[in-house]
Amino acid sequence: MDRKSIKGVIEAISAEMSAKRDYLVELDQVNGDGDLGISMDDGYRAVAEYLKTAVEKDLGRLMMACGKVFNASAPSSLGTITSFGFMGMAKALKGKEEVSFEAAAGAMLAGVENIMEKAESKMGEKTILDSLYPGVLAMVKHASDPKKAVMEAVKAAAEGSEATKQMRAVHGRAAYSAERSISVLDGGSVVGKLIFKGIADYYGAKE
């Protein structure tokens, strides 16, 4: 992974968020503010635009800049949470201009763990972590085989997202009507699933 591949991955994720923008809005209107699709589409689009002209080669600094761009372009709770992920990856990649797929997967795990720490959240609380965490664990587990790793990550993230239907919300607006949140798919978890779908799209396009 280098600056070029990061650009490609973000563009692929941005395409997923754009395609599912209205769907994410619909999901968020059930128990949230209804702006999920807008903020995720705007955030990833802004980062993709930034990376078109970015000249920074240090991956740590590049990811930190991506986090700042995302946070400024997606002023929402998940926008802030996503920026935590970029920051965690930035710390893991500091001083490196190119890393292996295994190292990239490890950096993504560091990003998810930073979200868990900063947001004081964990799996089972009906959030993006319910898809992000199992997805990244699958990616790390199979990192020696990138193609298998991304496909297993997509599968694990999708299963994690679907499982949120059986959970009670404990964070955000949805927590005020926790019982009503049962049987409802969490929009944030769908965002996590789309992140891995974008990564898989990028690696598929390379073949």
State the gist of this model.
By secondary structure, the protein is mostly helical.
SSE blueprint and pairings:
Layout: H1 3-19, H2 21-31, H3 36-53, H4 59-73, H5 77-93, H6 101-119, H7 129-141, H8 146-163, H9 178-181, H10 187-206
Describe the structure.
By secondary structure, this protein is mostly helical. It has a single domain (3-206), classed as Alpha Horseshoe (Serine Threonine Protein Phosphatase 5, Tetratricopeptide repeat), CATH 1.25.40. It is 73% helix and 0% strand. It has helices at 3-19, 21-31, 36-53, 59-73, 77-93, 101-119, 129-141, 146-163, 178-181, 187-206. Helix 2 packs antiparallel against helix 10 and helix 4 (59-73) runs antiparallel to helix 5. Residues 174-179 have low confidence and may be disordered.
CATH topology: Serine Threonine Protein Phosphatase 5, Tetratricopeptide repeat
Going by CATH, the architecture would be Alpha Horseshoe
**How many separate domains?**
1
Shape: globular
User: What is the H/E order?
Assistant: HHHHHHHHHH
Flag low-confidence runs.
174-179
Mean pLDDT: 91
- The CATH homologous superfamily is named DhaL domain
Structural class: mainly alpha
Number of strands: 0
Computed CA radius of gyration, to the nearest angstrom: 16 Å
The rounded distance between the terminal residues' Cα atoms is: 16 Å
Largest sheet: none
Q: Indicate the CATH class.
A: Mainly Alpha
Strand content: under 5%
Instruction: Report helical residue fraction.
Output: over 70%
Total DSSP helices: 10
